[in-house]
Design goal:
Length: 476
């Protein structure tokens, strides 16, 4: 029998986790020696120490892959970002993602995008199982388990998006295996229906059992769980659920949760009032030059100088928009050169924090989700955001599909470089991403329902798991 090392090597309970020491972690409980599972989950302090280690893995370099483009969740997001039309990637680490040619079974991108989420899922399962079997008070159990379920659902969502067509294409298609218990053997492939059922079950349970309190902004709370659920509902087409979850995530008062003045500050500070969720760093607890997007898009701090802006995308911004942060950095270039424009949106330093979820995204999700039930309110939400970002904004007269397209453009303008929003929207809505403007690789367009929008199953998984064979990649 094949032994599934890749998915199970951390299922043997990890007795000591490294706790991050950035500002967000300074007051976290820190184990000082190897301890048993029973000791870890005998107190809330011990369980929170375990949770802190999980949170740190969102931002640290994933040790199994010693590559700059294979780090924490940020590298998955940036790989998606450069697959679209808005960013142009130079010949640096994310070059093959940019060319939409990084999906074969033996490639590092494929292996990392499988291994890293499963690593995090197994950590979450360890937390959920350890807390469930502990003698902790019921209130502690409910809250800690909810945090574990949120993390588990978040990473199953990444797997569902990365290794199959979108949900509305065919929910019966095979999806990656599901693990909710510690196991030493691989499981068969699931289906998209089964995976999304688990994701939604975990998140709805978490929203019920969480509140606004948490150890720091890198940890999940009710707002974070609601925000992830809003994203999931967009994919599955539950627009009522998406609107309600997004509203809960940002609080429902648009003007109180937006700060236009801070948009140009570099997206490097987790204390920003618009950030719902993020990953902190400090100068001595940093992933250094691995950080994406900051180390690639910032052309004024020592790093890769690797990412540029499509001139067609820049043309979508008015001169008075606070998000118009595009600059002609390099002399002797013309608008036809791919190096013509850069952005100062992200500032790179060893202590630059990473945004994972912001209030503006949730406002735009609610706006889109309300289109069919309350178009006027959808339009009002969109305009409230637009006016916050641009004092000269004029409310459009768009309705129907034209209004949807306006919302999607606003999502790109607001969130470019952060979470792979252009790729995410094209995939879930089954749209093409044609490349225009001054792209280096015009011929690398993505068609609607393009197979290049998802990855093949890693060969290492096929070799290790008795339930999966080479036929899984047929026609992928």
């Amino acid at each position: 029998m094949k032994f599934n090392f890749k998915q199970t090597n951390i299922l043997i309970f990890i007795t000591l986790l490294t706790i991050g020491c950035s500002d967000d972690f300074l007051n976290d409980p820190k184990p000082t020696s190897s301890v048993t599972e029973e000791v870890i989950f005998s107190t809330r302090v011990g369980a929170e120490a375990f949770l802190s280690g999980i949170q740190r893995s969102f931002r640290t370099q994933f040790e199994r892959y010693q590559r700059t483009d294979c780090g924490g969740i940020y590298s998955m997001y940036f790989a998606r970002s450069v697959k679209g039309n808005d960013l142009i990637q130079g010949p640096t680490w994310f070059l093959y993602d940019y060319s939409n040619d990084n999906r074969e079974p033996t490639y590092s991108r494929v292996g990392f995008t499988w291994d890293y989420p499963y690593f995090m899922i197994n950590q979450a399962n360890s937390l959920i199982n350890g807390v469930t079997l502990s003698e902790l008070p019921d209130t502690d159990k409910a809250e800690l388990t909810a945090q574990g379920k949120t993390i588990r659902a978040f990473f199953y969502f990444q797997l569902a998006m990365e290794f199959q067509h979108t949900y509305s294409f065919d929910a019966t298609l095979p999806a990656p295996p599901i693990y909710t218990e510690l196991s030493l053997e691989g499981n068969p492939m699931s289906t998209l229906t089964e995976m999304y059922d688990l994701i939604i079950s975990d998140l709805t349970s978490a929203v019920t059992n969480l509140n606004d309190t948490r150890l720091g902004k890198s940890y999940v709370n009710q707002s974070v769980a609601s925000g992830i659920l809003a994203r999931v509902y967009l994919v599955t087409g539950n627009m009522t659920g998406a609107a309600n979850a997004a509203n809960m995530a940002y609080g429902g008062d648009v003007n109180s949760v937006l700060d236009a003045a801070s948009y140009g500050n570099g997206f490097d500070d987790i204390t920003n009032s618009e950030w719902i969720w993020g990953s902190p760093q400090s100068s001595d607890q940093s992933n250094y030059y691995y950080l994406a997007p900051h180390a690639f898009t910032d052309h004024y701090s020592p790093a890769y100088f690797g990412t540029y802006i499509n001139v067609d995308f820049a043309d979508l911004f008015s001169e008075t928009d606070v998000r118009n942060l595009f600059v002609h950095t390099y002399e002797n270039t013309t608008p036809t050169d791919y190096t013509y424009l850069t952005t100062t949106k992200f500032i790179f330093a060893f202590d630059s924090d990473m945004p994972l979820m912001r209030t503006s995204e949730m406002i735009l999700i609610e706006s889109e989700a309300l289109l069919n039930s309350n178009e006027d309110q959808a339009h009002n939400l969109l305009y409230a955001l637009q006016l916050n970002r641009d004092s000269s904004a004029v409310k459009s007269t768009n309705t129907g599909d034209a209004l949807l397209n306006e919302i999607l453009i606003e999502r790109r303008k607001e969130l470019y470089g952060e979470i792979g929003v252009e790729w995410f929207d094209a995939k879930r809505l089954r749209r093409a991403i044609p490349r225009t403007g001054n792209h280096r690789l015009i011929e690398s367009d993505l068609e609607a329902d393009d197979k290049k929008l998802f990855l093949k199953i890693p060969q290492a998984e096929i070799d290790a798991n008795d339930y999966i064979d080479d036929s899984i990649n047929t026609d992928r």
